[in-house]
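Pasting two entries for a bug report.
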Amino acid sequence: MSGEILGAAGALTGKIVADSVKEIRQADAAVRKELVSEATKTTAFKQAANTRAKRIAVKEALFLQLFRPIRGLIGLSAEYFENNFDEDMRERIEAIPENRRVAPKPIVAAPAMQGLAFSLDEPDLKELYLNLLASASDDRKRDTVHPSFAEIIRQLTGEEASLLRHPLGNSAHVAIARVRGTTSGRGGRTLANHLLPLADSDTGEMTVDAEVPTYVDNWMRLGLVDVEYGTYLVRGGAYDFVAQRPEYLKLEAEYANADITLKIEQGILRPTEFGMAFGRAVGMRDQP
């Protein structure tokens, strides 16, 4: 009996000690928090914070100087690089931990900066070049930044860059279709190619861009996506958009009285591994 009492007393004592330690720690944390809060109001703290901010700004400015020799190498002395380039890059460099910042390889940085110089009036392309330079300056990403990425951006339009954000940024398989016209006993031909479920983000109404089939062929040529007809998404309603597309409705009206049957061929547009690596390098995977 006495052993049980002693055991219970020991357990109770242990709980009291544990609770006391917990209360002491909580009180200590509250005191520390209050001290820090009061300290931030002092002139000394503000001066220290200001000094640290200046020190960080100086380090960032020094890091950005690494791009200057590359500018000289390719003869870039335009007003943008003298006045705005550092500011545009600074907000991207700030996102890289200081111990992860490295000098970008010239084989990547030089063509990227050259392409940037000719894309200042194309915001979507300008953003891709800046993000590519930032990725090339981050030792966590630098080895995955292929030298061809700058050339790929050069071969895109701003509209293409915007459309690519979905498949490359989300590794998404996208429903795609083409419309073929078949004639009894005489085969058929493609009447509309690479139809995508494009719609205005504000109104939800379908949008038409006559260049989209060319864009898709270009993405395939660059190795960013694969398109395969005959393989399709099994998700219900994935291809309902085709019969509502203006291109399809136009063909229906055009061939209403002709001996031609319209056939919708379903397919999939999917990003390649190369395309996803490109998307990561130019910041597409960081944005919706």
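Entry 2 (this is the one that rendered wrong in the viewer):
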Amino acid sequence: MSGISTPRAEQHATRAAFFMPGFAVSVWAPIVPFAKSRAGLDEAMLGLVLLCLGAGSLLAMPAAGALAARQGCRKVMLASLAVMCATLPLLALAGSPLWLGAVLFVFGAGVGAMDCAMNLQAVAVERAAGRAMMSGFHAFYSIGGFCGAAVMTALLAVAVPPLWAAGGAVVALCGLAVFSVPHWHRERIDHEGPLLAWPHGFVLFLGVLAFVVFLAEGSMLDWSAVFLSEVRGVEPSRAGAGYVVFALSMTLARLLGDGVVQRLGRQRAVLAGGLLASVGFALVTLVPAWWLSLCGYALVGIGCANIVPVLFSLAGNQRAMPETIAVPAMSTLGYAGVLAGPALIGFLAHASSLVFAFLCVAVALLGVAASSRWLRV
């Protein structure tokens, strides 16, 4: 680490690292309609092209862990940030499906590598502090997402060209990096054994739990408005309220989560979170009054908020596998849940109903709660 770094400076720099990819991804989201029009895509083609972002992320995460072991987190995070900053303006310029897909793949690789390296950084900072900090770090990813979406929407609303708006976002990211990069970890992470390996045992168990929780979060993102609109009969213009309640509840719960995890312990925090999220899905699906079911969306956000941060802490502190393999495995399997979630929900809804699909998620979250008894390191 840099000689001028202090524990407090490292903690602030880690929060900034989490803010950056959340901000970058949310800057891209409001540009999607412009990119769709510029590249001449229909809805089906857009869906295929958007998969490139997820593919880039999934492929980059394990490689980022191996590189962090050899080069240290700082170099990987700095390179990832450079990739995100270089590709954001290009996303506003892409004029063909092939070009947009290629840029999205590289952008996704930058986001995925940053996601992996920043969690390795967070594990080290939390370990040095000797107290729970992971929930607070993850909260800043959500805050970054809110800020990016709000700023970009405001700029585009006053007719700022997408390229200029994306360029302004890059300037903001670079300015934040100036103060953060000196306090990111630069040491190699030494361990015995291969730098890349398929997760097994306890690490695979953690990855499966992360998959379920990320699947639940992904179902909120992609299906909450559809559920309120098609099942509860809410006007489409107001159907986004469910996700807003979910996202705000999750962010607030993560800001307060470190204290909660410190008091309850990791096992009971996962138990309580899984139960709350499961009850939340049950309320959403079984309570007819849509305004009352919003309480269910809030419970899902509160319940899911601190489970994944706890799982990352456990992955970084277990001894079955090196953390540079365990943490990327968590990121990769979790992100796979986000990608697979909408498709699985859609398949179940098509085979039965959206209510049945949501209840299946509730049961899976009960399984996460029941599994907390084995979460010991």
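Dev reply: Rendering is fixed now. As a check, the viewer should reflect this: The mean pLDDT is 87.
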